[in-house]
Automatic annotation (TrEMBL), chain A:
Gene Ontology molecular-function annotations: transmembrane transporter activity
UniProt keyword terms in alphabetical order: Cell membrane, Membrane, Transmembrane, Transmembrane helix
InterPro entries: ABC_transp_permease
Name of protein: Ribose transport system permease protein
Species of provenance: Neobacillus niacini
Keyword rRNA processing attached: no
UniProtKB/TrEMBL annotation, chain B:
Key words, A-Z: ATP-binding, Cell membrane, Membrane, Nucleotide-binding, Repeat, Sugar transport, Translocase, Transport
Locations listed in the record: Cell membrane
PROSITE patterns the record matches: ABC_TRANSPORTER_1, ABC_TRANSPORTER_2
Listed name of the protein: ABC-type sugar transport system ATPase subunit
Gene3D superfamilies: P-loop containing nucleotide triphosphate hydrolases
Organism: Neobacillus niacini
InterPro entries: AAA+_ATPase, ABC_carbohydrate_import_ATPase, ABC_transporter-like_ATP-bd, ABC_transporter-like_CS, P-loop_NTPase
């Protein structure tokens, strides 16, 4: 009898603990992002009856998933105190690489694997430039960004799109499992892995330490150089993943695809409460940031807003969120 | 009637429900040096940051020359003639000495900077203060002590009426300290008032006219320095409940039979050459020397941070190669660096994440952190070293200097090192935490650990070290033992005496 009571109280205690942990996972700046997301959703559903339908929701997911996956990689890089401007160009070059090799009749699974390896290798190059050659990340990745974009434009005569006919390749990126698009499953899997790695592994802790205080971290025995190279590799890999998914959705390799995505990815990271100076941030926050960008683009398109106005509104909202975040941090300090 | 140049009345500052400064009255007379004392979190720095316009108090008023003033920003504080020299230096390393001296009040010719004029005026200022520095030198290449002097020169050159010095001598050599005191005496004779925040009793007795003790955000007492004694001040600082540890008793448990734990033979590296010495099990070996004598560099070389150019290191009689920090950690050698803020702690990380950082790969070889185990270790560390506040999730950047240092030391101790290297381990730390740490170092050697401590605080070496090596110009000048370790002896050899 008494045992039962005890167990119950233990159960309720662990439940409380869980609730507390979830509460703690979302710092106040992240809470703002998710509150902002809800407000946005309310506004759009009021203005457009189509917004709150299931099919539109899946649409948003399909659109934002690729940005989110790139932004997860970007989150790693920014937490480690660096920046990667080459992600959009990696999307472009991997899409072109996949389209060209598929056209030559290569096996789709092999094409996907090689594309991902290509992304990781570009990330490795970025990382080596930053760590070994000691070029500032901004400049090093600006170089890869420019060269790779040129390469994708040159890889097709007249910079024309190259069609992808492999149904396996297209299916792998566009099919639905029941009502759920497979992209959502990829997104969820990557999110869980990225979150787990960052929060529960020694490597994740080393990423935070590297960005939070590189000298102190290296004196404490963290191999800061290796950590930095690794985050660039991860970012390159995830960008390539996005590039594969995007080319599958378009059934083509477009030389200019992914242009400007580095900005959306950085915006998602910053909206998600990750500190631009490094050392702090979460992938969950980045997911929220990517969702905001996705919901905004989707909602504004539904309202018939042109791309020009969308850009302005998007910029204004990002600015607002960042200012709000600064205020919140000041209060906390 | 003595003239009060500054009066702070009933100042209260609350940080998230916690009263950092609680209804404090403080006054400052023209031409006096007023020492401000207190332990960790006593509220000294907060009170001074209110005066500097960094924080705004919830309650209270500030009067300057009897008139109420509103200080709500750094610049409004400067306009009132208040200059601050904080512990964390605000010197910009990439500018020249002159550039730093005239920062934010640069001399201009039309719209261009008048570098020549600034360098000329800087030269006069530096000379009048007896500082042997070139105005066109880039600050990056200067020592911490020299930077501190530039900071002081900057405050003086802005014609401040009130100068606040927060632990100004921590990075200074004995010589530089003497120079600073001369400067202070000149200033006070001209009517400038100085608030002097320090933990060093000898300095306070030498330089101050009155002293105020704060504890837990409250003012305990203000008395003329002449009427105070060290014991009385320490009792005011720590209250009645806490014990002051006695560090005068040195350990007698050095085991020399087994031979030295560490032998350094003809070691050369950055700023030192052909250095040889031994370290025994359970011994505390002091290293003394002026700034630039190679005292920090030798620790950095042994702990794998800087490269060794020639010579050999032997551990328990066997030659070992230390080419990286990892090599040193593997061999059980780890260093607590001098520059705590940049090289010691990771400010944005919690106490827990800081203390386990070095040991993490050994604790969790699979790479996955078990939070419960990590929490347990952090709590153990917090209890063992009495880290306050004792919340493992607290960001280390928000801790006081003493507690931050305890975090760095905990991180090193979690490795169970055989040899602990300490570079200025109690610099800028209040007297309570300092005694706690010195007590801890003793305990560690009694458990068989060997310690090398570099310190510019002579009393620390005198009370702590079993032997002391005095370095001069990158070479061993003298090895002092037991009763030979005195302030006088160390100074004599450190300044090059034969």
């Amino acid at each position: 009898m008494s045992l039962g009571v005890e167990r119950q109280s233990i159960n309720s205690k662990t439940n409380n603990k869980k609730a507390l942990q979830i509460g703690k996972m979302l710092t106040s700046s992240q809470a703002i992002i998710f509150i902002g997301l809800i407000i946005l959703a309310f506004v759009f559903s009021y203005l457009s009856p189509y917004f709150l339908t299931f099919s539109n929701f899946m649409n948003i997911i399909r659109q934002m998933a690729m940005i989110a996956i790139v932004a997860f990689g970007m989150t790693y890089v920014i937490i480690a105190g660096e920046i990667d401007l080459s992600v959009g160009s990696i999307i472009g070059i991997t899409g072109m690489f996949a389209a060209i090799t598929l056209q030559k009749g290569m096996d789709p699974i092999l094409v996907i694997s090689l594309s991902l390896v290509l992304g990781a290798l570009i990330g490795l190059f970025n990382g080596m430039m930053v760590v070994k050659v000691r070029v500032t990340a901004f400049l090093a990745t600006l170089v890869t960004m420019s060269v790779l974009r040129g390469l994708s434009l040159a890889s097709s005569p007249g910079s024309a799109p190259i069609t992808i006919n492999s149904s396996t390749y297209v299916d792998l990126t566009t099919m639905n499992i029941g009502p759920i698009p497979v992209v959502l499953i990829y997104l969820a899997a990557i999110l869980i892995m990225a979150h787990f790695t960052l929060n529960r592994t020694v490597f994740g802790r080393h990423i935070y330490a590297t960005g939070g205080g590189p000298i102190a971290a290296s004196l404490a025995g963290v191999n800061v150089g290796r950590v930095k190279i690794m985050v660039f590799v991860i970012c390159g890999f995830l960008s390539a993943f996005s590039g594969v998914v995007l080319s599958g959705r378009l059934s083509a390799g477009l030389p200019d695809s992914g242009t400007g995505w580095e900005l959306d990815a950085i915006a998602a990271v910053v909206l998600g409460g990750t500190k631009f100076s490094g050392g702090q941030g979460t992938v969950l926050g980045t997911l929220g940031g990517a969702l905001i960008i996705g919901v905004l683009s989707n909602g504004l398109t539904l309202l018939g807003m042109t791309y020009a106005y969308q850009l302005m509104i998007k910029g204004a909202i990002i600015g607002l969120a960042v200012i709000l975040d600064i205020w919140v941090r000041r209060e906390e300090a | 009637m003595v003239q009060n140049i500054l009066e702070m009345k009933q100042i209260t500052k609350v940080f998230s429900g916690f009263k950092a400064v609680d209804n404090v009255d403080f006054d400052l007379r023209k031409g006096e040096v007023h020492a401000l004392l207190g332990g960790n979190g006593a509220g000294k720095t907060t009170l001074m940051k209110i005066l500097a316009g960094v924080y705004r108090p919830e309650n209270g008023s500030i009067l300057i020359d009897g008139k109420q003033v509103h200080i709500n920003s750094r610049s409004s504080s400067q306009e009132q003639g208040i200059a601050m020299i904080f512990q964390e230096l605000s010197i910009l390393p990439n500018l020249t000495v002159a550039g730093n001296l005239f920062l934010s009040r640069e001399k201009k010719k039309d719209i261009r900077l008048d570098d020549k004029q600034m360098e000329k005026e800087a030269q006069t200022l530096l000379e009048s203060l007896g500082m042997n520095l070139s105005p066109s030198q880039i600050v990056k290449d200067l020592s911490m002590g020299e930077r501190q002097l530039i900071e002081i020169a900057r405050a003086i050159s802005s014609d401040a009426k009130i100068i606040v010095m927060d632990e100004p001598t921590t990075a200074l050599t004995q010589d530089e300290q003497e120079k600073l005191f001369e400067i202070i005496r000149t200033l006070t004779s001209r009517g400038t008032a100085i608030i002097y925040v320090s933990h060093r009793m000898d300095e306070i007795f030498e330089i101050s006219n009155r002293l105020t003790v704060l504890r837990d955000g409250k003012k305990i007492h203000t008395i003329p320095t002449k009427e105070a004694s060290t014991t009385q001040i320490i009792n005011m600082m720590i209250g009645d409940n806490e014990l002051l540890y006695d560090t005068s008793e040195k350990s007698k448990k050095i085991s020399k039979e087994a031979g030295p734990v560490l032998q350094v033979n003809n070691l050369s590296g950055q700023k030192f050459s052909n250095l040889s010495f031994d370290l025994f099990k359970g011994e505390i070996l002091g290293i003394a020397g002026l700034l630039g004598s190679g005292r920090t560099e030798i620790l950095r070389a042994i702990s794998g941070i800087d490269p060794i150019t020639s010579g050999a290191i032997q551990l328990n009689g066997e030659i070992v190669r230390i080419k990286s920090i990892h090599d040193a950690i593997r061999l059980g050698i780890i260093m607590v660096p001098e520059d705590r803020r940049n090289e010691g702690i990771i400010p944005g990380m919690s106490i827990k994440e800081n203390v386990t950082l070095t040991n993490l790969p050994h604790l969790f070889p699979q790479g996955v952190i078990k939070f419960r185990e990590e929490d347990r270790i952090a709590k153990q560390n917090i209890d063992h070293l009495n880290i306050r506040p004792g919340d493992p999730k607290k960001k280390v950047g928000k801790l006081s200097g003493g507690n931050a240092q305890k975090v760095v030391i905990s991180r090193c101790l979690n490795l169970n090192p055989k040899i602990l290297l300490l570079d200025e381990p109690t610099q800028g730390i209040d007297i309570v935490a300092k005694t706690e740490l010195q007590m801890l170092f003793r305990q560690l050697t009694e458990q068989g650990m060997s310690i090398i401590v570099v310190s510019s605080e002579l009393p620390e070496l005198v009370s702590l070290a079993d032997r002391t090596i005095v370095l001069y110009d990158g070479k061993v000048k003298k090895v002092l033992k037991d009763s030979e370790i005195t302030d006088k002896n160390i100074l004599y050899y450190a300044t090059g005496g034969v």
